[in-house]
Amino acid sequence: MASRSQGPAREPLLELRDINVRFGAVQALTDVNLKVYSGEVLALVGDNGAGKSTLIKCIAGINIPDHGQILFEGKEVRFTGPRDPTALGISTVYQDLALSDNLDVVANLYLGREETDRPIPSISEEQMEKRAREVLADLNVTTLQSPRLVVASLSGGQRQSVAVARSVMWSAKVVILDEPTAALGVAQTKQVLDLILRLKQQGHAVIVISHNLGDVFEVADRIVVLRLGRNAGDFEAKDVDRDDVVAAITGANIAAASAATPGTATPTA
Amino acid sequence: MAAESPDAAPVLTPATIADQEAGPVERFRRRVTEGELGSLPVIAGLVIIWITFQILNPNFLSARNLTNLIVQIADMGTIAVGIVLVLLLGEIDLSVGSVSGLGAGVMGVLQVKHGVPALIAVPAGVLTGTLVGLLQGFWFTRFKVPSFVVTLAGLLAWEGLLILILGTTGTINLFDPGIDAIAGNFVSPAGGWIIAAVGLLLFLGGMLRTRQRRARAGLETRPIAGLLFRAATASVLVLAAVYILNSDRGTPYALLILLGLVIGFDYITRRTRFGRHIFAVGGNAEAARRAGISVTFIRMAVFTLAGTLAATGGIIAASRLLAVNQSSGSGDVLLNAIAAAVIGGTSLFGGRGTVWAALTGSLVIGSIQNGMDLLALSAAIRFMVIGAVLLVAVTVDAIARQGRASAGRA
């Protein structure tokens, strides 16, 4: 496993140490470690059932680890519910995006946090629209003609952009994206990958869960592999090739080395 | 690779983009083809209905009959405002008819049997609806019983309660001048003109203020011509209405109550956080919950409002009929209110619609009933015609939705 090459002085923004999660008889995660740095895109990969979602839910405050520590900016934190990580600036965009189709982009970005005028408590549409335009422009979301469009009229990539914009506009430091490119077309996938790189440029730490290694190699700085609830690899994306990652995902590390022998190569998942 | 669908056009439909650049005529044409009809079908329907009945009976468009029509729809419209709110939430309230009868019954019993002054009896009737709505909303949110079932139970139970409180009397006649004034009094002609002028000035001022605020925030503004067009249209409609009403008995109190409720709730739904959250819950309750909105509070509040508005409508009806009896709020009261909201353009599936639908939809139903009354048609024919109109309205809505879907705005 490759170790980080960017010098020992840097402190991880978010660190998970020896995380163990058990659901009844099932040991979902065993001694899992994870470090994420600011301005870095970390791809979390693994086969179905590898524990990716369980791990993400630990960070999102939905699963509470049985053992292990979570450190945020070097200090240990304990999450008792989804509100705790949000308050620290850890924001998760789930696959279903949780947008209201019948409302426009501005309303979705501000959903639950609408700003109001005084003394008559009406929604400050102008301020909200102005800020929405700025946030979208900062993220280089250029395909959206107007933030006044109803979400129902947007493409999949645009919806993903809106969901991501909503998560970062409330000063998120860590953004977790669950399968952000699943079910997107070529051009829309490109939009979302550009958006991820943009988040990195802005100094956010980004954790991307993906099944698509092509996308992973395009944006990730580091690739962490989980297999059967354990760490199975931590690679610098630029130092590793696809086959090594696939081998780590499928548990074929040794088999891959001796792939010449027929019958032992690449076990099926 | 997940990139299989050849959806290489991440931009919006050209029509949507052009919508912001095109003039009003072009914008109108696109809305029709894309199913963004708004209140257009109902206005068109109303014009057709009025012309038809005017041909069949020349008294239909007389000032006297139009004034009667306005008073007749005030109770239906008030109840329909509550139905619109509930439909925006993606729910239904089947109890509003019974609750309207119960509210009127409580008011009537207190005032006539117990000699309570109207100033207390009327709010007590309204409050009855509030409590009933609160109870139903609580039951729906607490036990997760579908609103359809909770309010269906209410439909029967509150009608029973009305019969119980009326006791052996059966019918209570209302003679109190305060109660009778609600649907029976009219604002003087001068008063009507003043109210209309103030209302129009506020409308124009509101539009100018919004425009100014957008300009100050550096956002694009609509062309001033469009704004003036809207102001002129509103002025013509309002002033013509006041003129017609003044040439009979003046502006009915009942119309002012209905208009006040419609304008007030239109503002609440479009411009306040509470209203925004109603739309959010109706559009995607799970997304609303995750955004930190209290879905339970919104649902209970809306059912409480629906009950309150239903009782208010019932009191207006009692004032118009000068009586409360065992059949108050039964019959077609519920169906008319739901039909009005839907005919006015409120989606049955939640999250789409405007409070104005309560007014326009009630005008359509009221006009048909009033016109058929003038023609002395039988109840058999009237029921079938209203049923057909409701079906046409829902069909127009369904076709419009298909238009939205094919334009990518499902």
Poorly predicted segments of chain B: 1-21
Radius of gyration of chain B: 22 Å
Outline the biggest β-sheet of chain B. 2 strands, antiparallel
Number of strands of chain A: 10
Biggest β-sheet: strands ordered side by side in the sheet of chain A:
6-7-8-3-9-10
The CATH topology of chain B is given as ABC transporter involved in vitamin B12 uptake, BtuC
The share of residues in extended strands of chain A comes to 15-25%
Q: What is the element string of chain A, with H for helices and E for strands?
A: EEEHEEHEHHHEHEHEEHH
Rg of chain A from C-alpha positions? 20 Å
Global morphology of chain B: globular
Count of alpha/pi helices of chain A: 9
Number of strands of chain B: 4
Distance between the termini of chain B: 28 Å
What would your notes on this structure say?
The complex is a heterodimer of chains A (269) and B (410). By secondary structure, chain A is α/β, with parallel strands linked by helices. Chain A is 31% helix and 23% strand. Chain A has 9 helices and 10 strands. Chain A has helices spanning 52-59, 83-88, 105-109, 125-138, 156-168, 186-201, 213-219, 242-250, 253-257; strands at 14-23, 26-36, 41-46, 67-72, 75-77, 90-93, 174-178, 205-209, 222-227, 230-236. In chain A, helix 5 runs parallel beside helix 6 (186-201). The longest helix of chain A is centred in the C-terminal third of the chain and has 16 residues, at 186-201. Chain A is globular. With 410 residues, chain B is an all-alpha fold. Chain B has a single domain (44-188, 250-406), classed as Orthogonal Bundle (ABC transporter involved in vitamin B12 uptake, BtuC). In chain B, 75% of the residues lie in helices and 2% in strands. Chain B has helices at residues 14-21, 24-34, 40-56, 63-88, 96-114, 118-143, 147-166, 177-184, 189-216, 224-246, 253-271, 273-283, 285-290, 295-321, 333-343, 356-374, 379-406; strands at 171-173, 186-187, 251-252, 323-325. In chain B, the strands form 2 sheets. A two-stranded antiparallel ribbon of chain B has the order 1-4. Chain B has a two-stranded antiparallel sheet with strand order 2-3. Chain B is globular, with a radius of gyration of 22 Å. Classes of the chains: A alpha/beta (269), B mainly alpha (410). Chains A and B meet through helix 4, helix 5 and helix 6 of A and helix 1, helix 9, helix 12 and helix 13 of B.
